[in-house]
């Protein structure tokens, strides 16, 4: 239950910030998905209401930073739910008669390797895990990730390099989604 005394304060914050939050969610976080952007803003303000006793004593700039941080985290949670990489790839092989068929054995190995990759990524430091997820599951570019997370492109590349190295060490060459390290997007950036 919201303290009736706080309702005008929360309403004022909503009027001051909701439009800009929606614009950011729409353009940067959902890439034009209006309904998801609206949902993210609503979820962010629901979190603000729940945390209002602490949030209300912050400066307007502190409140704004809190809202954007929560909005980004809500978006990442949403992306995790909608992950584009499927656990079973359809791996076609050609039989001796020239017909293609699905190789169930390769599908199972691919699914197991992919699941192990996500297990390894889930145990990485949070920033590295976010970068890895956005890059490999959501197909975001280095620049898009850097802009979203407020870090440099070289830091994103560093996180990807470390994540790739860890995946190859822990999962091996069966990692189904890792690019060639010679691509220009790779490098030993400054991530920690």
TrEMBL record:
SUPFAM superfamilies, alphabetized: Sigma2 domain of RNA polymerase sigma factors, Sigma3 and sigma4 domains of RNA polymerase sigma factors
Pfam family, one: Sigma70_r4_2
Domain RNA polymerase sigma factor 70 region 4 type intervals: 119-167
Ribonucleoprotein keyword on record: no
Keyword Coiled coil: no
NCBIfam families: sigma70-ECF
Family: Belongs to the sigma-70 factor family. ECF subfamily.
Name of this protein: RNA polymerase sigma factor
Native source organism of the sequence: Actinomadura miaoliensis
């Amino acid at each position: 239950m919201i303290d009736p005394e706080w309702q005008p304060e929360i309403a004022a914050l909503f009027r001051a910030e909701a439009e800009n939050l929606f614009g950011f969610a729409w353009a940067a976080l959902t890439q034009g998905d209006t309904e998801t952007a609206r949902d993210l803003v609503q979820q962010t303000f629901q979190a603000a209401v729940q945390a209002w006793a602490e949030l209300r004593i912050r400066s307007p700039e502190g409140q704004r930073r809190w809202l954007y941080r929560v909005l980004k985290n809500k978006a990442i949670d949403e992306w995790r739910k909608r992950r584009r990489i499927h656990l079973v790839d359809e791996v076609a092989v050609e039989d001796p008669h020239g017909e293609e068929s699905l190789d169930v054995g390769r599908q199972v190995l691919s699914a197991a390797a992919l699941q192990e990759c996500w297990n390894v990524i889930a145990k990485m430091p949070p920033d590295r895990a976010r970068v890895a997820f956005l890059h490999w599951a959501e197909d975001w570019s280095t620049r898009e990730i850097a802009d979203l997370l407020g870090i440099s492109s070289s830091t994103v590349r560093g996180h990807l390099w470390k994540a790739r190295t860890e995946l190859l060490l822990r999962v091996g060459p069966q990692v189904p989604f890792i690019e060639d390290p010679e691509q220009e997007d790779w490098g030993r950036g400054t991530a920690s």
